[in-house]
Amino acid sequence: MKALTLIVQKRHISGRKVSTLRKKGMVPATVYGKTTDPASIEVNAHEFRNVYRQTGETGLINLSVENDIRPVLVKNVQLDPVSMKTIHVEFHQVNLKEKIRAHVPVVVTGESLAIKEKTGTLLQLLDEVEVEALPADLPERIEVDISGLANVNDHVVAKELPVKKEVTLLTDPDIMVVKIGELLAPEPEPEPTPAPVEEEGAPDQEVSSEKIKEEQGIEEKQEPPVKPEESQKK
Fold first, then answer.
1. Which residue segments constitute the domains of the chain, with CATH numbers given?
2. Is the dihedral of CA 55, 59, 60, 65 positive or negative?
3. Which helix (H) or strand (E) holds 162?
4. pTM value?
């Protein structure tokens, strides 16, 4: 991919005052490199998003700082945790004749027969790989074709990725990138607990003996009270 150009301006304010830049649609940024002093700049937020969407962190950008062209890569993008807007950017100035290391995203392409027929599930075990190349040769992404994975346990390892000869793969070549795994059996639904069966005629609760006798018309015979005179005769 051809390097994209991004026009920026030198920044003369710092600290809390940079909030005024953000209100104007600008983003504070910094450029640094191995042989250059750090430089404070500001970049239009909309223009940066458009360029970054195409380059990511591995695409080369020609940073135009008041007609001074600097080849850079996006090193870090800081986002506001609430609004998710870009609040600061770090650019790394590179030497076009010196190889650098970078992490390149891995993108899955194609359709697996196992996935299509629902006999397996796709497991992406690695979403990026580390490579080394000249800045202009760094790939934006590396595609892994899964159309040849037809059975469970079929896989692709890092050394099978389509990498250009100008690019050196630094990631372990035998590490798995994608794999077809077994489908997980759905968990059985718990069987409903049957309600307890009540015996016919069984009383809902204990009934006192007095109540039973009362319902049956049985009354206890009570002896008449003993008079005091009869008690003395005895």
1. 4-94 (2.40.240.10), 101-181 (2.170.120.20)
2. positive
3. none
4. 0.69
